[in-house]
Amino acid sequence: MSKWFCYSKNNANTQSSNSTSTSSVSSSLAYDLDNLNITQERLKRYADEANTLSSETSDTTLTANTEDDLKTKTIFLREKAISKTLNKIKLSMKVDLCFVLDCTGSMESHIAAAKDCISHVLNYIIRTNSNIKLRVGFCGYRDHNDKGDRLQFLDFTDKYEQFTTYMHKVKSVSSSNNDRPEDVLGGLDAAITQMDWQNSTRVLFHIGDCPPHGRRFTTLRDNYPDGDPNGLTAENVLEKMQSKNIFYFFGKITDKTDKMLEIFRGIIGEFPMFDLVGGDPIKLIEKLIKATSSSITYAVSSTIGSNSKEIYSLKQKKLDMNPNVPDWNTLSLQKGVVMWYFIPKTLDELKNPTYFNKPKLFSESFSFKIAQQPFSGGVEKCAYFALDIKRNKIPFIPCIAKQQMKEMVIKEYIHIGKNDPFEKYLEAVEVSTVAYFLSEEFNRHAKRKNIPKVNFLNVKLLRCGTIDLRTRYYIIEPRLKDAEYKRFNANTGVITELRPTLEAFVHFTYEYTEGYLVVCDLQGIELNNEFILTDPAIHCIDSLRFGGTNFGKDGISELFLANHRCNDICKKLKLSHIDNSAFNLVPTSDNN
Ligand SMILES: [Zn+2]
Fold first, then answer.
1. CA of 494 to the centre of ligand 1 (A)
2. φ/ψ of residue 325, rounded to 5
3. For the chain, percent of residues with pLDDT exceeding 90
4. I need a labelling partner for 89 at 20 to 30 A (CA). Which of 226, 227, 264, 589 fits?
5. Which residues are placed with Cβ below 5 angstroms of ligand 1, an ion?
6. What GO molecular function annotations does the UniProt record carry, in alphabetical order (predicted)?
7. Can you give the pLDDT at residue 296?
8. What's the number of CA atoms in the CB half-sphere (13 Å) around residue 139?
9. Distance, CA 535 to ligand 1 centroid (Å)?
């Protein structure tokens, strides 16, 4: 049986002094723990992170004589960084959305869908994310022989009737030439260079059923097999798009564009693609509304907290990932220790930052296998498939052990900085433990009222490697079932997939903790009568807890209270109504 112990000073001493009977893993863990001052390490890291955020150019080293001094200075830096981030968030809610549409003969139904789409998209945005302000524009393209009809565009406007009236005049024109490729690059280039992109979040939604000219894109009959007659290339067009921080989305109709998409991905990395295969016009409009709304919320939530360089380099990295579960027989067994916090019993314990410290930490030895390449990644972390392997001895027959295997996911921070990674990983476990505690309380209330359950995965810290210099830390959690992984809302307050239960859960965490925190950034899978979530973020009035995604008391009021619309589930749970008209959401300035 594996050994369980609750860490305490005495236990640690027993572990390290009794070296003959203790494995090297346990004694080195005890050594690590002895040397870790969680509070001090955390303060130092927060000060460093806030410093980098609030003054990207200067590298001031923080000097402090006492822990209290360090605390005061860190709070100051954190609040400065938070206010800067909140301003960026508000600016990112201003969106330029441009439809780039192939307007040749075969595209009639899609042009019709685009006409009707925008008013529905606006209604949806107003209902879910009233803080998002949108300007829309249009760029239609045909082919080189079409002369005056080759390109047509309407610059960005917030007068939506004007947009709809314009769209009603857009006609699909069958090209007079006899080849299939169209002037795709000309259309994209005009949208990128000739339209007046001003807002922080920029969305280019491209819909087309034919490839650009040139042999690299197609083997279909082509009057310009050497490529664009005006000298445009996919590289120079897409690079202009990147330098203007424009997000690219594609609505796919046929396989004829597959080669083009592959080439585009090779240049800018992965981008979201939507199925817009025609047929039933009503269904097509529905698909387009959903695709457009997701593109807007995706772009808004990606614009914040990371610059486009980071986003594009991340997309590039995605190409090196392996989405397949590895052949476990080829991977070697590794040993480590998992650690987790004892779940708080009361709200006071949860609110007490010193609760989450060494005496409340548990550990257990752990055998596992890990894939060599990650299967997915975000701006912060990447994730690997893993296997938890337990050998359970059968009672009375100690020589035979039964092997039990459980599918897991291991996550690793991409940038750890110069600080102690042990402390940062412990913080991730603390965030999950708090979310877990609140979900249990929510479910207790929800059960009586027939509301779907909200569950969080059981997250632990995994430490592996023996007493060598390259001790590695990870986060480990059970692998979610094969259901579509969704992000329901972001810590910026943006609702990406509206689920009343989850929005009510966020409200519940605010009310239950008496305004101390909100749990947000809800993501995971949706089952019949239950959500299973992971990787939450927490906004808390104590800005020295829960990491860089905690936007403090202003985050609670400006990102949650100002956006939340109480729904039927809030009412069923008898949560007090939140009146969001009292919160001001106008960005304070245009500079960062
Ligand atoms: Zn509510």
1. 15
2. -65, 130
3. 53
4. 264
5. 507, 566, 570
6. ATP binding; protein serine/threonine kinase activity
7. 86
8. 25
9. 22
Instruction: Concatenate the DSSP letters of all residues of 557-585 into one string.
Output: IIIIITT----HHHHHTTPPPP-GGG---
Instruction: Classify residue 39: in a domain, yes or no.
Output: no
Q: Is the distance from CB of 340 to CB of 460 less than 8 angstroms?
A: yes
Tell me the β-bridge partners of 418: none
Q: How many Cα atoms occupy the beta-carbon half-sphere of 367 within 13 Å?
A: 13
Cα of 98 to ligand 1 centre, how many Å?
Answer: 34
Q: Give distance in angstroms: CA of 32 to centre of ligand 1.
A: 44
Distance 582 CA to ligand 1 centre (A): 15
575 C-alpha to center of ligand 1: Å?
Answer: 6
Residue 41 lies in a domain: no
Cα 183-187-190 angle, rounded to 5 deg: 135
Final residue of a structural domain among 286, 317, 348: 317
The whole domain housing 510 covers 328-582
Q: What is the pLDDT of residues 296-340, one digit of tens each?
A: 888 887 766 444 455 555 555 555 789 899 999 999 999 899 999
- Ligand 1 centroid to 509 CA: how many Å? 10
Residues 292 and 379 in one domain: no
Please tell me the distance between residue 451's alpha carbon and the centre of ligand 1 in angstroms. Answer: 14
Whole-number Å distance, alpha carbon 565 to ligand 1 midpoint, is 6
Q: What are phi and psi of 358, to 5 degrees?
A: -50, -40
User: How many angstroms is it from 4 CA to the middle of ligand 1?
Assistant: 41
Judgement on whether residues 262 and 342 belong to the same structural domain of the protein: no
Nearest CA among 349, 355, 543, 500 for reference residue 438? 349
Q: How do residues 35-77 score in pLDDT, each as one tens digit?
A: 888 888 899 888 888 877 665 444 455 566 777 888 898 999 9
Count of H-run helices and E-run strands, the chain: 16, 20
Q: Using the mean position of ligand 1's atoms as its centre, give its distance from the Cα of residue 285 in Å.
A: 31
Does residue 322 fall inside a structural domain? no
Contact of 214 with 259, CB cutoff 8 Å: no
What's the CA-to-centroid distance between 574 and ligand 1, angstroms?
9
Q: Which helix (H) or strand (E) holds 250?
A: strand 246-252
CA of 55 to the centre of ligand 1 (A): 37
Distance 479 CA to ligand 1 centre (A): 31
Q: Ligand 1 center to residue 493 CA distance, Å?
A: 14
pTM recorded for the entire structure: 0.82
- For the chain, 592 residues long, the average pLDDT of each consecutive 10-residue run is 31 31 52 83 87 56 72 90 90 92 88 83 84 92 82 93 89 79 96 96 93 94 93 96 94 94 93 85 83 85 58 56 92 92 96 92 92 86 93 70 88 81 93 97 93 96 71 93 89 91 98 97 94 96 94 94 93 91 49 38
Output the domain CATH number for residue 170. 3.40.50.410
What's the 142 CA to ligand 1 centre distance in angstroms? 48
